[in-house]
Amino acid sequence: MKNPFKAFDNFFINLINKQMRNPFFDFLFYHITNIGGAISLITITALLIFFGKGKYKVLGIKIAFALILSGIIVQILKRIFTRSRPYWILKNLNTYGIDLRDYSFPSGHSAASFAVAVIIALNFPKISIIVIVLALLIAISRIYLAVHYPTDVAAGIIIGIVSSLLVNYKLYPLINLYIKNKL
């Protein structure tokens, strides 16, 4: 099947990975991408769950469920679509020494970052702009570092948002109700 988004992906990966390249972005995106990685997000979530009190503990639990749900969806889709990473296909991309072996679609970092950001934004609206901008920078970093196409990132963002909405408004209230009924 031919990719209907090929021109879109190629235009934006060229714009973000090649034309925007400069020392500041090299440093920023290379380091900010790690905030959306498993180690950072699991550490933050565990700290909230095990050391948080009240609404912070609840936040950690919601984040954990959103990360699990988005992670499952991402892994299923990666195995279904088996899309090659951009630097496996396109020539002359700036890869910054990153060499991943799994598939590209959808972006797990983008899904996880938006899953966390949206849960935080829903529960702490005063900092919503900060967490959404941070998640967006993490998502852009995935294109800048040439590990994902823009459509991989867009799909990851959608997965993260939908996972968070489902957890916050459907799944967590059911779990909370179940726990109250059992006690």
Automatic annotation (TrEMBL):
<dbReference type="InterPro" id="IPR036938">
    <property type="entry name" value="PAP2/HPO_sf"/>
</dbReference>
<feature type="transmembrane region" description="Helical">
    <location>
        <begin position="153"/>
        <end position="172"/>
    </location>
</feature>
<keyword id="KW-0378">Hydrolase</keyword>
<feature type="transmembrane region" description="Helical">
    <location>
        <begin position="63"/>
        <end position="81"/>
    </location>
</feature>
<protein>
    <submittedName>
        <fullName>Undecaprenyl-diphosphatase</fullName>
        <ecNumber>3.6.1.27</ecNumber>
    </submittedName>
</protein>
<keyword id="KW-1003">Cell membrane</keyword>
<dbReference type="Pfam" id="PF01569">
    <property type="entry name" value="PAP2"/>
</dbReference>
<keyword id="KW-0812">Transmembrane</keyword>
<dbReference type="InterPro" id="IPR000326">
    <property type="entry name" value="PAP2/HPO"/>
</dbReference>
<feature type="domain" description="Phosphatidic acid phosphatase type 2/haloperoxidase">
    <location>
        <begin position="59"/>
        <end position="168"/>
    </location>
</feature>
<dbReference type="GO" id="GO:0050380">
    <property type="term" value="F:undecaprenyl-diphosphatase activity"/>
</dbReference>
<keyword id="KW-1133">Transmembrane helix</keyword>
<feature type="transmembrane region" description="Helical">
    <location>
        <begin position="28"/>
        <end position="51"/>
    </location>
</feature>
<keyword id="KW-0472">Membrane</keyword>
